[in-house]
Design goal:
By secondary structure, the chain is of the alpha+beta class. It has 3 domains: about 110 residues, Immunoglobulin-like; about 220 residues; about 160 residues, 2-Layer Sandwich (Alpha-Beta Plaits). The chain has 14 helices and 18 strands. Strands 2-1-4-10-6-7 form a 6-stranded antiparallel sheet, with no helix packed on it. It has a 6-stranded mixed sheet with strand order 14-15-13-16-17-18, with helices on both faces. The protein has a 4-stranded antiparallel sheet with strand order 8-9-5-12. A hairpin with a 4-residue loop joins strand 17 and strand 18. Helix 1 runs parallel beside helix 9 and helix 12 runs antiparallel to helix 13. The N terminus and C terminus are likely disordered. It catalyses: 2 GTP = 3',3'-c-di-GMP + 2 diphosphate. This is diguanylate cyclase. It is an enzyme of class 2 (transferase).
Length: about 550
């Protein structure tokens, strides 16, 4: 039986929802015991959400006695937690006992009166402990998941989503009674637990809504400069005021401020999503659906909280279910974004690598350019010096190249350069390096080769170039020769000093008549006289 006001009315079930109540609600129970009833049983009210709960008992032929007061967690008559009024009911066999339970507001009043045995009560405590453990594990998993996503995607706002999920989990844990024991343990002696529930619940909801706004802003890449707008500043100020006033302000003031901040943040979230939809942001639709699922779940819980919907156990867990539904939907969307970002990064890395390669390649010959030379030669010299290996460097220059361009044109000159590039490539190993140093001058770096074998390479280049033929525009096949200077790395050499000695050897080859290989010691590698045909003067 239940009453609100003056008259009692029969109840159709054990799920009672009176909505917001300013005064008090009285619940009347008659408990009868059969002749075989010997096990202790409890009358459990369950989740009344009231500010004050008082339990009165009357046995046949006796008056009413107060069984428990709302602020005594454990009394001689029974146990009363924040939202769990559990009173031992042990009438004599074949007797009945009558109970009146007064649940006072202001606030919502929901109740699920049941009779449970001591064993059933222990099982329920175990179930609630298990639920709390699952909730804690889910929170840790969600935060870890957001951390991994934040690391992989660099998406802004994922840490804010973790904070929002934590705040919603706190609210859910308090609303469902999972955190009751912890809250009682944390409260100072004499502190009103019901007021603490309302304060922390309101604060958790406001924080969740505010961090949800931060998350959506970061996810949908809103303009950072918009933080200076008065609307955003007002939200932040409201949150700070709520945080500062939590320990000091009246419960009703906290509730009003929490509602204001929550509504403002949710409106801001909806505005951010609407703006992202107008911009055709790739995550806007998924975010709208995900946020909508959470909003529907939270709306169902609030409607039940206000008495607009009957008390349905699933609605107690609607907030947590909404959080996980939103997390799953966002996971799909962000996972797709992760794949797109990784593909884009892979393409960008490949493009960057290609541009880096092209920036160190000569466009005409495909050999390394001066930039590649400046990077490769010092590294190679240091590596060979540490390994105790020899290194030789060749400087190759086309003889009378200016006259080739003047007589046959620059197009033929480009062909000559390409022919020298092909000859050089065929004359060296895959572990060697060839560079077009500038104009008609080439440099060959030969790691692991001492002077004698470097001389063989230089001679192959010189003779191969002289023996090659290509038709000039006038139909002739002029002989084009090269001169080569060779130097080997000495202790204390740098890239500059090694090149300087090879370059000096090249100039001696030019002075000695060209079409020659000259060593840094001054020894000649031989002057080659080309076959019959046109030849530029030495």
């Amino acid at each position: 039986m239940a009453v609100q006001g003056e008259a009692f009315a029969p109840s159709d079930g054990n799920r009672l929802n009176f909505g917001l109540v300013k005064g008090a609600v009285w619940l009347r129970f008659v408990v009868e015991a059969g002749s075989g009833c010997h096990e202790p049983v409890f009358l459990k009210l369950g989740n009344p959400f009231g500010n004050r709960v008082s339990v009165f008992r009357r046995v046949q032929g006796e008056g009413w006695t107060l069984e428990a007061s709302p602020l005594d967690p454990v009394t001689g008559a029974g146990q009363l937690q924040i939202r769990q009024a559990m009173v031992p009911v042990n009438p004599l066999p074949d007797h009945a006992a009558e109970y009146l339970i007064r649940v006072a507001g202001p606030g919502p009043v929901l109740a699920a009166p049941t009779i449970v045995s001591g064993r059933g009560l222990a099982d329920e405590v175990g179930d609630r402990t298990l639920l709390g453990g699952l909730l804690a594990g889910g929170i840790v998993s969600l935060v870890a998941y957001c951390a991994v996503l934040a690391r992989l995607t660099r998406l802004r706002g994922l840490w804010a989503y973790s904070a929002s999920a934590l705040a919603l989990a706190l609210f859910y844990g308090i609303a469902s009674g999972v955190f009751d024991r912890a809250l009682l343990w944390l409260l100072p002696a004499g502190q009103d637990p019901f007021g603490a529930v309302q304060r922390v619940s309101g604060f958790a909801v406001a924080i969740a809504a505010l961090f949800h706004w931060f998350f959506v802003r970061g996810l949908l890449a809103a303009d950072a400069a918009s933080w200076r707008k008065p609307w955003h500043a007002a939200l932040l100020f409201g949150w700070l005021a709520l945080a500062i006033s939590l320990p000091f302000a009246a419960t009703q003031a906290i509730a009003l401020l929490s509602v204001a901040v929550t509504i403002a943040a949710l409106v801001a979230v909806a505005a951010e999503i609407a703006a992202a939809l107008r911009r055709a942001h790739p995550l806007a639709r998924a975010t709208a659906v995900a946020f909508g699922s959470l909003a529907v779940a939270a709306t169902g819980f609030v409607a039940m909280y206000l008495g607009l919907l009957p008390w349905w156990p699933a609605l107690i867990h609607a907030t947590a279910l909404g959080v996980w539904a939103e997390a799953i939907l966002l996971s799909v969307a962000v996972g797709s974004q992760v794949r797109d970002l990784r593909g884009e990064r892979q393409r960008l890395a490949e493009r960057t690598q290609e541009l880096s390669r092209l920036s160190q390649r000569d466009a005409l010959t495909g050999l390394g350019n001066r930039r590649a030379y400046d990077r490769t030669v010092p590294e190679t010299l240091d590596r060979c010096r540490r390994a105790g290996a020899a290194v030789s460097l060749l400087v190759v220059d086309i003889d009378h190249f200016k006259e080739v361009n003047d007589r046959h044109g620059h197009g033929f000159g480009d062909q000559v350069i390409q022919a020298l590039s092909a000859t050089v490539t065929c004359s060296i190993r895959t572990s060697d390096f060839a560079f077009r140093y500038g104009g008609e001058e080439f440099v060959l770096l030969l790691p692991g080769l001492a002077m004698a074998r470097a001389l063989e390479v230089a001679e192959r280049v010189r003779s191969g170039m002289r023996d090659s033929r290509r038709a000039a525009p006038d139909g002739s096949q002029p002989v084009v020769s090269v001169s080569v200077g060779v130097a080997q790395m000495q202790p204390g050499d740098t890239a500059e000093t090694l090149f300087a000695r090879a370059d000096a050897a090249l100039y001696r080859a030019k002075a000695a008549g060209r079409d020659r290989v000259e060593l840094e010691t001054g020894g000649a590698g031989g002057a080659g006289a080309g076959p019959s045909g046109a030849r530029f003067p030495a």
